[in-house]
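Pinned message: reference record for Prephenate dehydrogenase
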Amino acid sequence: MSLSVSIIGFGAFGQLVARHLRDHARVVICDPALRSNDLSSVDLTGAAGCDIVILAVPLSQMQGVLGAIAPHLRPGALVADVASVKLRPAQMMRDLLPDHVQILATHPLFGPESARDGIAGHRIAWCPLRGRGHLRLARFLRGLGLRVIPTTPDDHDREMAVVQGLTHLIARGLADLGAGSSRLGTASYQRLIEAAAMVQSDSPELLRTILTENPHAAAIRQKFLRGAAGAAI
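Predicted structure (tokens):
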């Protein structure tokens, strides 16, 4: 895969992306606060000049980044995001990016913690929005062992309102209770604690995105809380 790839945002997930792409493409990074020891750093204009541009920034920064790179994107370039919600990023990319670029909305269903032993077998939600460049990228990722799951931004957010929204809600509740391993813990309780621990290290920005930026999350959350309250009567 002899392509140039820029990763805008070099936090924990951007570093994970770089680690798995660097042997297959020329990778550069763009982050005002973080640097790599051995990957070139570029500004937003330089990042926009690559064949594939990966947006690994918080959702709150995405609009500004899209506006900054839009005038500098080359015709045929593929711009992809990795946000945990899909409707809002998809709409922003459609609205702010020029017609001559391809657009792909993705959500890797793993993170640095769950993929610490490798990405093979993990899944990535795949929402092609414009162009066919995503087909080549999907083939490449399947070659790395990822399972590419086609979906739409709306279908993704509806499912993730349950899958991710409730997981983080429960994890936050358990953390507030100070729940942890117990000498009397059952197998099901221990699995619950382990699942909660996998997401408790996620950033506050990610938690806010999952719980407030998914338009389907509030209704699911209220339904869950009503059911929990009814079960306690």
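Pinned by admin. Summary line: The mean pLDDT is 92.
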